[in-house]
From TrEMBL:
Domain Hemerythrin-like: 10-128
Molecular-function annotations in GO: metal ion binding
Protein name: Hemerythrin family protein
PROSITE patterns per UniProt: HEMERYTHRINS
Superkingdom field: Bacteria
Pfam families assigned to the protein according to its UniProt record, in alphabetical order: Hemerythrin
UniProt-listed InterPro entries: Haemerythrin_Fe_BS, Hemerythrin, Hemerythrin-like, Hemerythrin_metal-bd
Length: 135
């Protein structure tokens, strides 16, 4: 299970809710993947993965709108990071048939959570610092 940590909190309610939702959806996929009692779990995992990708896009555009609203100077480089991440996720072919499908999907999920956590701690926290100077 992917653990949400206090250090990921930005203090901006809407952003924190959306970041937590990303963890929640990633954990849905994780739990399903770990459940060997469900027969057609891959179809379900793919549906959740689509939901994760959609929610991630939704979150990024909400965050970008917020960054424009507060006049964040590094808006463009932040947006590029979001775009490249979405591109990487789209390139992950989850339908790839091989004997280690569990392992493959788990790797993508781990990549997702690792990227999001790192992005929150470095890139997002930078606009949090900026946002605090406005108060
Ligand atoms: Fe971001």
């Amino acid at each position: 299970m992917f653990q949400w940590k206090k250090e990921y909190e930005t203090g901006i309610a809407i952003i924190d809710e959306q970041h937590q939702e990303l963890f929640k959806i990633a954990n849905e996929a994780y739990n399903l993947l770990k459940n060997n009692l469900i027969i057609d779990k891959y179809d379900k995992v793919l549906i959740i993965f689509d939901k994760l990708l959609d929610y991630c896009k939704y979150h990024f555009s909400a965050e970008e709108k917020y960054l424009l609203d507060i006049g964040y100077k590094k808006f463009l480089s932040h947006k590029v990071q979001h775009e490249e991440f979405i591109k990487d996720l789209k390139n992950a072919n989850l339908k790839k048939i091989d004997t280690n499908q569990d392992e493959y999907i788990m790797e993508i999920l781990e990549f997702f959570v690792r990227w999001i956590s790192g992005h929150i701690l470095a890139t997002d926290m930078d606009y949090v610092k900026y946002e605090r100077t406005l108060k």
